[in-house]
Amino acid sequence: MTALDPERIKVILATDCGSTTTKAILIQYVDGAYRQTHRGEAPTTVEKPFADVTMGVINSVTEIGELAGRKLVDDDGRIISPATDTEGCDIYISTSSAGGGLQMMVAGVIAEMTAASAKRAALGAGSIVMDVIAANDGRRPHEQIQRIRDLRPDMILLSGGTDGGTKDKVVQLAELIAPAKPQPRFGSDYEMPIIYAGNNEAQTDVSEVFAEGGFDLQIVDNLRPVLERENLGPARDKIHDIFLEHVMAQAPGYDKLMGWTGAPIMPTPGAVGDILQTVARIQGINVVGVDIGGATTDVFSVFDETFNRTVSANLGMSYSISNVCAEATMPNVLRWVPFNMNERELRNHVKNKMIRPTTIPQTREALMFEQAVAREALRLAYKQHKEFATTLKGVQQQRTVGDTFTQEAGGETIVNNMTLDLLVASGGVLSHAPRMHQTAMMLIDAFEPEGVTMLAKDSIFMMPHLGVLASVHPKAAEEVFDRDCLIYLGTCVAAAGNVKAGKPAFSWSFNGMSGEIAGGEMELVDLALGETAMITLTPVRGVDLGNGPGKKVEREIKGGTVGVIFDGRGRPLGLPEDRSSCQSTVQGWIDSCAMYREEEETAAAV
Amino acid sequence: MRTLMIATLTACCACVAQVHAQVAPPTNVKTADAPNDVGNQVIVTWETSPDDVDGGVTSYVVVRSKVDTDESTPIDEGAIGDVPYGVTTFIDENATAGTTYWYGVRATGSAGESAIAQAEESVTPTMEMINAGKIWFLIIMVTISGVVILYVYHAKRGGNISVRKIAGLEAVSEAVGRATEMGREVLFVPGILDINDIQTVAGITVLSNVAKTAAEYDARLEVPTARSLVMTTARETVQAAYLGAGRPDAYDENRIYYLTDEQFGYTAGVQGKMVRDKPAACFYMGAFYAESLILAETGNSIGAIQVAGTAMPSQLPFFVAACDYTLIGEEFFAASAYLSDDPEQLGSLKGQDVGKVIAAGLLVLGCLLATLGAMTGSSGIDAASSYIKDNILGKAGVMPAMVLHIGQEDDTE
Amino acid sequence: MAKAYTPGLLVTGFREHRCRRILPIAGEVNVSIGDVVTANDVVAETNLPGDVNPVNLANQLSMPASDVMDCVVVNEGDTVAVGDVIAQTKGIFGFMKTSITSKVAGTVETISPVTGQMIVRGAPLPVQVRAYISGQVVNVLPGEGCEIEANVAYVQGIFGVGGETAGSIKMACSSHDEELDAHHITEDMAGAVVVGGARMTAAAVARAREVAAAAIVSGGIDDADLKDMLGYDLGVAITGREQLGITVIVTEGFGEIAMAARTFELLKSYAGTEASVNGATQIRAGVMRPEIVIPLESTPEVGDGKRKYEEGQLEIGRPVRVIRDPYFGIIGEVSDLPSEPHVLGSGSKARVLEVKLPTGEHAIVPRANVELIEE
């Protein structure tokens, strides 16, 4: 399809084919702005008996058409494009994560260097990284081969060596992969795609190793030409190409769907990453996004225009709930629960949720427990993210004598909660919490933002659609993201640094109101959705709110459905070890933030 | 027996007295066994002779006689030492523990010698089992040792002993990784001193870790040495490290070689190697002199990640400026505990830290008290500061000293 | 009407069961269409390529990789035994030769002049696929495997550990709500599929392993006991590869919970019959539940295929099980299906139904928290 002039795009139709539901949204140009106007939903139809993804797409689009009073699908079951005044759309775009998404295996020479860059490229492209093979991953070669054999990835990304760097290590990796003959996940009628993005001098040797057949080797530019710089673009684009050519082509109905779309179909997480990057770039802010699902948790971050994504494979709220409890340990989960629970019963409850993943908490106690688990899952996922989102390793450092006592190692995390501006939540437990206060508190407790941070949630999981839209019409995507996609929960003002329990931490004033927050205290002040205010924050000595310890902060804050949350608990967040004082502390926070209030029933449908 | 003794001394002195009767003898001679010794010291004190004015007396001579067995006649040993006029104390350091002695003192002046003034009682020096003057030393030693044992025990029980992150050691894997990715070598320079230097030993400890990482990453490690013994040690260490990493086949002893003992010959050799082969990681761990900057600058110019470690204060600034990471003095020596994660080493590292804190605390306190004392002139503060100086750091024991002050030197530990 | 969110587990006295028996890689299929096989027959077999052992000759000979080719004394494709010389240096005038011997037996697959590595592949590993259920081969996938069909009584469990096994069914408990304890298990249950009632205790499982029972099936298990049994805390419900020596299946869930009476009666009616059991569970997209498959000699008359209720439909009067606290495990009847969402105790709004509990009480339960009892 030929590229459209962005100026002329007025009606945009977007779908996201998830593994269970296909969600469609309609974006229209109304009164000088792009707005998301209608949405529709239908079960995904990739699996038998339907085995044609377009059926689900048409069903969801038909639903929108009815709601919008606009005919979008013609009598032959095709999406009408381009648009006229009353029917059709100017452009149709789609993402997909049906069939388990894009699964990859990556390989590189050193786990922290080229292999990490390869992983970053694969994750950034929206794939699930099944395993990372590296020369120093601690496994013996035959174990690595066994592992490659067991995995059935959609494709393999092989990197290693700087340009002109090691040749034999890269060829060794190729020599591990070639005899293992990994089988592609879908059928045996296509050859395993291998993307080589390593040392340019080893290209011929690598192609010789894979020459024997059974592989479809594609060579792109080195993703780490020198250790000081990453060049992930070519590898990432190649992953998308192969995703479309091979992987999507295997799934029923996708060939038809590809013919309809005005932009390449993207893997859902890749699209989410794109919209966050677009927004961060246009607004000049640092963003962290999280999507907590039943099995996995995705964390996206953009700090100083550097994008990172991690997938925590076994941190989730249903299939993986038991793993969260095992990894975080029960006492860590229970510290967020302000009442006593029988551990034996609790263990059984957790396992029952795991084997019956679709159940929902019926009582408040069950809800509180589930939200406690969510906090730990998010905390662990964010920890993994911080460990992964680092500056490059293996880079020469420049020092002066002044650095004698402050030498910092390379590979430090670039995630800085103090400079974080916007934290976006999505995923069942966060976006469907009965009260948005609970969502806000889960985010604050798990991510521990510092200084002034805006909190928001993705209203109907629209980020994937907007991600693809960003590739054709970034401005429209950004506008809709801000107006319709995000529901602002409010702003969190959290003290970092030397906060002393019970002693004043900082004072605040805005809109003629003012107050003082003591160490260990929380307070909630209303500031309605859509309102902004200039806030003045005066921290005591040693407490940092963004401008350095003890320095006054004046800035604009946005209101939201929750309001402004003042957090004087200090960082890192410590809870009392003792069970009973921990319970009363947590209960105090719950009360001051009005997390579970009987009378209000602003419940979201589950 | 006493009568006998007096008789002898009197007899002996009587003849002298007859000749020089002009000088009056000192009075009130007393003897005491010196405390906190092995039994070889006796303290003799007296009051000055009435003639000890205007140069009437030039010196006092101490005489001694010893009683071998209970019943024998004391054997006169004659003069055993003298002190100038005005002095009223003498410490006999040549006594034998368990032997009984009689002491006498006579004054000598321009007018001749006085009669011998006799101590009233004999003295038998004995050995003390505990040197009470060094009780503080004992307390501090027991504390530090106790703390070390406590921490070792704590670490062995799985307790967490956190050692501050030492960036230079964390960077080993990064540096070796860089060499692997770039297909270049890892160069390790263990300094120019022999294996008997503690810095070289510490360097070899780090080498073991570097070699292990190199084995895991399958990187090429080169170790040029300036001493043959260092080469042998390095070979053993590297081989063990490769074995430990499960890669004995990757070990090649020819990559650990001896260049020359000559400081600048060695430097030139290593430098030439660096310029030709452009290693991607260079480690300088050991004792360095003038060659430090030559090596580090060369390494910097070829774009290597460089990690240095030395306890040579004069070379540290060069390393800090030219290298990516530098281990400074103590860090360098703590490296083995840091790298091994061995509870015994970690425990003693932590215990030693407590010792350092105690030492530093006393230092600060002493300085503070001395300064305050000088400013205010308060005798209380002076007493406190001298307590630190004499009792805690000196040999004066636990009790504030005045009593035992006699004859104690103010040497500090 | 309304679909239940959680379809019930399949428990049926009769079903035409078809199972695919596939090799991990291409191989030989030993059966042809129409063959009648028993559970232990090998239907397909193949040889997995042996383990790959790289030998770094360049390092062992201390020479650049490019020179290695001159020293190698074997060719690609040669078979080597442990101790065979695979490479030798030229030495000096024929003396001082260094030779490298092979530490593994196998075939020389490749020798690389780039890395100086030789890859020796070990002996192939035979893999056999058994029929698993007794029945008839209805389809052969050449080189891959076959499909076997049989008329069976079929019970799906909710969760299991351990792989495929077979044995005759032995009832250990007399009622569906009797706890399965060690004293229920007797010596003669060796090789049998032991069926209990409610929760199985840790002692019961231990005793069953002691008498070498093939499998143990009951209503529930305590998670703490499961953890002790496995030696680790199960994080994700993907099982089937545990090596416990016994396959464990729970039919209802974790904790104190009785086996559904129907399941119990069904198993009881086939006491003494051979059954195939698989504990493999995978709760993810493409869900897999543990199963007990009882091949039938003749087609029973009861299973005429007619159902009282349509599959997956919630209807008033239909028996359902509540699968989440506070009513966890209770079986009741749907007494009302309000169409408007209802605010739950947790504060969430959700579609609910009213369940008439055995005590006569009526309870409001989210629709997501019930599962149908398939009749």
Task: Summarize the structure in words.
- The complex is a heterotrimer of chains A (about 600), B (about 425) and C (about 375).
- By secondary structure, chain A is an alpha/beta fold.
- Chain A is built from 17 helices and 24 strands.
- Chain C starts with a strand and ends with a strand.
- In chain C, the strands form 7 sheets. In chain C, strands 2, 4, 13, 14, 15, 16, 17, 18, 19, 20, 21 and 22 form a 12-stranded mixed sheet that branches. Chain C has a 5-stranded antiparallel sheet with strand order 29-28-25-24-30, with no helix packed on it. Chain C has a 4-stranded antiparallel sheet with strand order 6-11-10-7.
What is this structure's SSE topology?
The complex is a heterotrimer of chains A (606), B (413) and C (375).
Chain A: E1 11-17, E2 21-30, E3 33-43, H1 53-68, E4 91-96, E5 102-108, H2 114-124, E6 127-134, H3 141-150, E7 155-158, H4 168-180, E8 192-196, H5 203-209, E9 215-219, H6 233-250, H7 254-260, E10 266-267, H8 268-283, E11 287-292, E12 297-303, E13 306-312, H9 321-328, H10 330-334, H11 343-355, H12 364-388, E14 422-426, H13 428-431, H14 436-447, E15 451-458, H15 463-472, H16 474-485, E16 486-494, E17 496-497, E18 504-510, E19 513-518, E20 522-525, E21 532-539, E22 543-544, E23 553-558, E24 563-567, H17 579-592
Parallel strand pairs in A: 1-4, 4-10, 5-6, 5-7, 7-8, 8-9, 11-14, 14-15, 16-24
Antiparallel strand pairs in A: 1-2, 2-3, 11-12, 12-13, 15-16, 17-22, 18-19, 18-21, 20-24, 21-23
Chain B: H1 2-19, E1 27-33, E2 42-47, E3 59-67, E4 75-84, E5 89-92, E6 100-109, E7 112-113, E8 117-118, H2 135-156, H3 167-182, E9 185-189, H4 198-217, E10 220-225, H5 228-244, E11 256-258, H6 263-277, E12 281-285, H7 291-301, E13 305-310, H8 316-322, E14 325-328, H9 330-340, H10 343-376, H11 379-392
Parallel strand pairs in B: 9-10, 9-12, 10-11, 12-13, 13-14
Antiparallel strand pairs in B: 1-2, 2-5, 3-4, 3-6, 6-7, 6-8
Chain C: E1 2-3, E2 11-22, E3 28-29, E4 36-37, E5 42-48, E6 52-56, H1 57-61, H2 68-71, E7 79-80, E8 85-88, E9 99-101, E10 106-111, E11 117-121, E12 125-130, E13 135-141, E14 145-156, E15 159-161, E16 164-171, E17 193-195, E18 199-200, H3 202-210, E19 215-221, H4 223-230, E20 247-254, H5 261-269, E21 274-278, E22 291-295, E23 313-314, E24 319-322, E25 331-336, E26 342-343, E27 349-350, E28 352-356, E29 362-366, E30 370-372
Parallel strand pairs in C: 16-17, 17-19, 18-19, 19-20
Antiparallel strand pairs in C: 1-23, 2-14, 3-5, 4-13, 5-12, 6-11, 7-10, 8-9, 10-11, 13-14, 14-22, 15-20, 16-21, 21-22, 24-25, 24-30, 25-28, 26-27, 28-29
